[in-house]
Amino acid sequence: MLFPVIKSKKGLIALSLQDLHDSLYHALFCQDGKRYDAESSPIIMSDGEPWVHNKKYIRTSAFLDDDKTIQLFIGKTTVQVWYRKSTNSKEQLKYIWVVPNNGTLLVKSLEIGQGEFKVTLFTRYFYEEDDDVSVENIVNIQWPLKVNAINGACSALWHLHYKRNDVTGPQKQQKYENLVCEIEIIVEQLIKKRPDIWRLIDIRHNVMASLIYGHRIRLVQQILKKKESDSFIKYLHIPRLYEWPKKNPKQVIWKLQ
Q1: DSSP code for 167
Q2: CA 127 → CA 94, 101, 124, 194, distances in Å?
Q3: Domain of life here (predicted)?
Q4: Lesser CB count within 10 Å: N end or C end of the chain?
Q5: Which helix (H) or strand (E) holds 219?
Q6: Strand 92-98 vs strand 13-14: parallel, antiparallel, or unpaired?
Q7: How many CB atoms lie within 10 A of CB 233?
Q8: What average pLDDT is seen over the chain?
Q9: Any idea which of 21-25, 79-83, 134-138 has the lowest mean pLDDT?
Q10: Measured CA distances, 129 to 39, 55, 133, 134 (Å)
Q11: How far are the Cα atoms of 6, 77, 96, 161, 184 from residue 141, in angstroms, in the given order?
Q12: Does residue 8 contact residue 117 with C-beta atoms inside 8 Å?
C-alpha cells in the first residue's frame, strides 16, 4: 500500500544538528526533539546502506510518529523512510532517495513532524569523465508532500546495481537484497494501483531507463508485457527518441587543483 499523505497537525520541529556526531555515529531523534544513541535504543533500521564497509559510518535517524512505527534514515548517500507496524512485524520501505553519480551528502537542516519531515542536504559528486571536477548542490526534500517516490525508487535501483560489488559478507548481502526487493515493491505497487500515474512519470522522468541501467530485468519485462484494459493507457511504456527537456539545477562546479 502506498503511504497516505497526512499533513502533521502539530507542525514541524527543527532539530539541533550542532555537534551532532561528536560522540555518536548514529544519532536518533524522537518526536520530542531530543537526541538519543540509536545503538542503545529500539530502532526499525540501523544499517540502511550495507555497501558501506565502515560499521560506524555517520548516519542520522528520526522517528516520525509517537508510536515509533515510522523512521527516517539518512546515511552517506541515501535518504530512506521505513515503516513497521509492531516490533514483531517486518519493516517496509516507503521512500528512498539517492545522491546522483555516486556522490555523498551532508545534512544542513532537518525538521520532523507527525508522518512527515523536511531536510536540506548539501550534496557533492564527481563527473564520471573527469574525477577532478566536482559538482555541489543544495537539495530540499519534504516527505511525503513534495517528493516523487517512484522516480527516487527507480534511480535507487540504478544506484544499488553499481554498489552490488561493494557488499561484503553474507549478512550485508542479505540486507542489500532485501533493500532491492523493498524498492521493487514500491514500483510494483504503483504500477498495480495507478498505471496511469506510472505512465505519466515514465514520460516525464524516463524512469524506465533507470530500471534498465539497474538491470532489473524481471521488472522491465513485467512492464513491457503488461497491458491495461483501458485503451488510453494500454501500454505502460512507449519507447521514444527524445527525452523530456531537463531543467538545470543551481550548481557549483569546482575544479580541483
Answers
A1: -
A2: 30, 7, 10, 35
A3: Eukaryota
A4: C
A5: helix 217-225
A6: unpaired
A7: 16
A8: 84
A9: 21-25
A10: 39, 30, 9, 11
A11: 16, 14, 11, 24, 21
A12: no
Average pLDDT over residues 51-62: 91
C-alpha cell at 129: 569523465
pLDDT at 147: 93
Cα–Cα distance measured from residue 7 to residue 44, given in angstroms and rounded to the nearest whole number: 22
Residue 252 predicted with pLDDT over 60: no
Q: At what angle do helices 170-193 and 217-225 cross, to 10 degrees?
A: 10
Give the CA angle between residues 239, 242, 244 to the nearest 5°. Answer: 100
Cell 545534512 found at = 107
Residue type, 108: K
Exposure class string for 190-199: b at 16+ Cβ within 10 A, else e:
bbeeebeebb
Residue 61 reports pLDDT greater than 70: yes
How many CB atoms lie under 10 A from the CB of residue 167?
20
Q: Tell me which of 105-109, 165-169, 238-242 is least confident.
A: 238-242
Query: Residue 93 is placed in which grid cell?
Result: 520501505
DSSP string, 98-128: E-GGG-EEEEEEEEEETTEEEEEEEEEEEET
Q: Which cell numbers in the block locate residue 61?
A: 535517524
Question: Residues 107, 31, 61, CA angle at the centre, nearest 5°?
Answer: 35
| pTM tops 0.70, yes or no | yes
* DSSP labels, 47-92: -S-TT---TT--EEEEESSTTS-EEEEE-SSEEEEEE-SSTTSPPE
Which residue has 515493491 as its cell numbers? 185
Residue 145 reports pLDDT greater than 80: yes
- Helix and strand numbers (H, E) in the chain are 5, 11
Q: 42: which 3 cell numbers? A: 529500539
